[in-house]
Structure to design on (826 residues):
């Protein structure tokens, strides 16, 4: 008998039909002899409906009242799930943030969880009652309702699983797992049975929007095995944990990419101590997010800096850099907003220096010119012209043995 | 400086436009130097929307989950009102049932208020913060959300006003006060400036659906002056209190009527002790509500009983009575479901025996035959053929001096 925290997202509880499907999933786990704690988001669309009401009344919206108001979305969902479970002859009880209690910091709209009381949950479990807990909400020291920020229900679920020492935190969503890459780009992308926290973090931050990044960090920190599953289709999903059993001996677990990149290069910057800060400080002060930063070795007392930003911020970054270039006496600023980033991710890379060379070889054979390279322990990213995105991802996917067999069955979305 | 509890019903907060109007009403009272505590119902339609969702999931609906779910309607409304007040530069804070706290009995869907904590409310008032409290909800000893039953927000407001010793509990609704009779029947019906609790109870139970009966009883018990006003039109409404200053010397305050009555008579019942119970016990056991009961003096050892029921229950009451008549050896059962009840209400009646005779005289002159008569301290009710309803009410309204002057301005709805 295992203890599972099962978390259901907005689309998974988006209608009465979906809520009944959720109750069936929970009932199945109970029938298999497991203990289950349910965590739910609001029915899809409800949070936006409430925020739009508030926007008509006040601007900016008072954050205490915002939290109290939008938290009702989860309150309704958990009551409906508890009813659906009772309609199936199971015993269940909804629990609001303050009833658990889930205590948080004071910051109403992006509160951080401080503690999860496990006594009330455990006493329900001991009486064979399924606790159905509101995600996304907590209570602060004043007894006010707080909210964790969008997507915070994943974090609620992980925190509850950590407090209870659950065997798994199962995140039910509308995709059936984490894929080797985006199935819309590579039709032979396959679902990963297992992946590490580190790999998931690299994949998530690179654009695979399956899980909220904070919840993955949290799960890693407290060593809570996470499983991503679909509430729409049966399947075992993808297990995210600390290595465990390497089911596949793959060097590369997945290929992520980002279409929204733009690069800027400032040429001939005097190579003096502190110059990197003089350059990037003002960019960051202007609120422009920087992704990759590359500085090559200096020649003749001058050096070049290249970095990438989100395409939406390309123009403002360009104007700012030109001012800085003048001030620093740099030669020139050049840029390109038609680039993309492709990244190989995999813990297997750590011990295999050959991955990078294989990657560059494969891309070179297809005539794809690499403009920038950046590496970390478990990731290699390259920047290429955007026209090569699909070709590059597909070729790498195949070269690193990620393609599924032609007769394997998958259901991408 | 007075302390007012201002309670707003569902139609008064039914849209963002209406919520802004509510904030204007509160702001006006603040500008006049008063302290204000706001109590609100859910936006109209919201409670029904939620109940319909629940009905799709479970039948009968679990009452604990029902309360937790439907209480979100008020939670949203109070957050929006607090935002609207803040948008007007006032300080305000929403308060849920457990935050006040308003403790109740355990009975989730029709909980009774046990106590209202005044410390948190008073500490807000002392800091010049307007408390905006969710009506209709409370918290039980287990920390669960409870609800008071439909219309319970009026009771919440009265209980809060009683706890705080407020100068007035102002019930804002979609009518601008209590009228001498239904303006749809008598165009010259006028708004009453003042009325007693007892009169209001008689009028409310007789069909003037302005206030929830329980809240009037509650207000009377704790001597909280109630004022019914419109949130749509300015005006002083109707003050409901213990006599106070008799502004009008009227003997009759208002005329109520009920169109949904039917009468049944069981003739020739043996006049033995306990026969009334043998007759009415089974009717009441069958869940049929009985309004008037009349027994005349016995003659030749036999007596007649007549009573009135709701028209919807006429057929089932008739069938049941025929069985009982057989059992008791009564002569016959007769009935009529085309009758109405007309009632004069007024504390002035207590000391004026002439009211009844005037009433019978006035009706007789119009050729209206009186079928049944029932009286209480401050009420006289007669049953007449339904075709005489409008004529009877109009004639009595005029005869007892209730008609407004032709040039008086009123706004019936």
């Amino acid at each position: 008998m295992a203890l599972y925290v099962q978390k259901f997202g907005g689309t998974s509880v988006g209608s009465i039909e979906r809520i009944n499907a959720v109750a069936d999933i929970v009932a199945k786990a109970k029938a298999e002899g497991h203990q289950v704690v349910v965590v739910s988001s609001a029915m899809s669309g409800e949070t936006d409906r409430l925020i739009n009401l508030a926007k008509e009344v006040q601007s900016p919206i008072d954050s205490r009242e915002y939290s109290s108001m939008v938290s009702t979305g989860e309150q309704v969902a958990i009551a409906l799930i508890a009813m659906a479970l009772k309609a199936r002859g199971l015993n269940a009880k909804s629990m609001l943030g303050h009833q658990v209690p889930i205590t948080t910091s004071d910051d109403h709209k992006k509160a951080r969880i401080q503690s999860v009381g496990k006594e009330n949950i455990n006493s329900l479990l001991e009486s064979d009652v399924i606790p159905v807990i509101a995600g996304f909400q907590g209570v602060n020291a004043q007894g006010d309702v707080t909210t964790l920020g969008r997507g915070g229900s994943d974090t609620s679920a992980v925190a509850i699983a950590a407090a209870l020492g659950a065997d798994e935190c199962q995140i039910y969503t509308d995709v059936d797992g984490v894929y080797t890459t985006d199935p819309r780009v590579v039709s032979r992308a396959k679902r990963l049975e297992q992946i590490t926290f580190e790999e998931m973090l690299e994949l998530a931050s690179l654009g695979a929007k399956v899980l909220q990044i904070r919840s993955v960090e949290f799960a890693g920190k407290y060593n809570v095995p996470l499983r991503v599953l679909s509430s729409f289709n049966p399947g075992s999903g993808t297990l995210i944990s600390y290595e465990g059993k390497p089911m596949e001996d793959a060097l590369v677990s997945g290929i992520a990419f980002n279409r929204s990149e733009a690069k800027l290069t400032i040429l001939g910057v005097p190579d003096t101590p502190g110059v990197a800060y003089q350059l990037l400080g003002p960019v960051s002060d202007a609120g422009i997010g920087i992704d990759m930063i590359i500085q090559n070795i200096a020649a003749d007392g001058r050096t070049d800096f290249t970095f990438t930003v989100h395409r939406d911020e390309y123009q403002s970054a360009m104007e700012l850099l030109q001012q800085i270039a003048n001030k620093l006496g740099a030669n020139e600023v050049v840029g390109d907003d038609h680039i993309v980033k492709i990244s190989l991710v995999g813990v297997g890379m750590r011990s295999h220096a050959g991955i990078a060379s294989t990657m560059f070889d494969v891309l070179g054979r297809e005539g794809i010119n690499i403009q920038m390279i950046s590496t970390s322990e478990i990731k290699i990213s390259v920047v290429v012209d955007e026209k090569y995105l699909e070709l590059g991802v597909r070729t790498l996917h195949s070269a690193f043995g990620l393609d599924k067999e032609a007769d394997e069955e998958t259901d991408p979305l």
Q: What stands out?
A: The mean pLDDT of chain B is 90.
